[in-house]
Specification:
The chain is of the alpha/beta class. The chain has twelve helices and eleven strands. The strands form two sheets. A six-stranded antiparallel beta sheet has the order 6-7-9-8-10-11. The chain has a five-stranded parallel beta sheet with strand order 3-2-1-4-5, sandwiched between helices.
Length: 333
């Protein structure tokens, strides 16, 4: 076997430490970072890693999560966690991708920064065994931070990697990881949060709204839109997203589809809103009234609101009264 390993890299401290432990044993490591709108961007990137890992001993490969991952999100085999986080299925998906790279490169093992007992859904010992089995990485999946608490991998048994130089960290405390970071001179790493928006209560509530739509295939732009603005459900299947600032207004325009409706108050500063679904007359009026409520003209009795299809230059105009807050809360997600 080559002294080459493939590691899952999130940008968090645990994945940095895991990579450090493997590289320090003379392995060339391919660090794989999975990219998706639901993953919050971590701070530590390739430039920072050059100060932590020996030059020439690692490379960073980014993989965009595509439609196959979107299908997983909609129907995970092992279900969701507290919110809509399919942690086991997500880990299995990533391990399979990493395993493909390992096979192509004829490497020794895949490794991660997982710690026994740190996460309630995916880092119990039984869950870790499921991930290893389902990913097809039997005895080729190494968790350096907790290796001494787990059955040895083939690489450890063969002496390719020194098991005694690996660790026995467990639980939710970050004390030992922080001590190691100080020892290795690692700084500027992000906080301990998982970085997945599916664990966020507000995002999960919006995500569930999409899951309820019949025959809906979740796309990247759907996930991008869930991250921004104020969200409203006018009725089943009819959603409205209202920008909160200029940046969000621009993102709404960027991520909208040709079939989406764009609403904007005429003659006064205010948000850009995106209506999605088969809107009917009453829906247009409601969407316009909500848009007017968040404009600088909201004190006026009647406000002109323009609306058009996103890729259409022809604009319609409605004069509406801003929706009352008592009514607004019935629509808010």
């Amino acid at each position: 076997m080559k002294k080459l390993a493939v590691g899952l890299y999130s940008g968090g401290l645990d994945s940095i430490l895991a990579a450090k432990l493997i590289v320090d044993q003379g392995f060339y490591t391919i660090l794989v970072k999975f990219m998706s709108p639901i993953f919050e961007e971590r701070q530590v990137e390739i430039g920072d890693l050059n100060h932590i890992l020996p030059s020439g001993y690692f490379s960073l490969r980014k993989i965009e999560m595509g439609e196959d991952y979107s299908l997983l999100l909609q129907s995970p085999k092992y279900g969701y966690g507290k919110n809509v986080n399919p942690c086991l299925d997500c880990k299995i998906f990533m391990m399979k991708k990493a395993g493909q790279i390992l096979k192509e490169q004829e490497g020794s093992f895949v490794f991660t920064g997982e710690v026994v007992g740190q996460r309630p859904m995916s880092q119990r010992k039984d869950a870790m065994r499921i991930i290893e089995r389902e990913s097809g990485l039997n005895r080729h999946l190494l968790r350096p931070l907790s290796a001494q608490l787990l059955p040895p991998t083939i690489a450890e048994e063969s002496g390719l990697i020194n098991r005694e130089a690996l660790l026995n960290i467990s639980g939710r405390s970050r004390k030992r990881q922080i001590e190691l970071a100080q020892k290795f001179g690692i700084s500027g790493y992000p906080g301990p949060g998982g970085g997945c928006l599916l664990t966020d209560v507000s995002f999960a509530r919006r995500f569930k709204m999409i899951l309820q739509e019949k025959n809906k295939v979740i796309q990247s732009d759907d996930l991008q839109l869930l991250k921004i603005g104020r969200h409203f459900m006018i009725r089943s299947g009819i959603r409205l997203i209202v920008g909160r600032n200029h940046s969000e207004n621009q993102k709404i325009l960027a991520f909208g589809k040709k079939s989406d409706w764009i609403f904007q108050v005429i003659g006064a500063p205010g948000p850009i809103s995106l209506g999605r679904g088969n809107l009917e007359t009453a829906d247009f009026e409601c969407a316009a009234a909500i848009t007017a409520r968040y404009s600088d003209a909201k004190a006026q009795e009647k406000i002109p609101v323009g609306f058009k299809l996103r890729k259409n230059s022809h604009q319609h105009i409605l004069e509406v009264s801003p929706v009352h807050d008592e009514v607004l809360k019935n629509y808010k997600i």
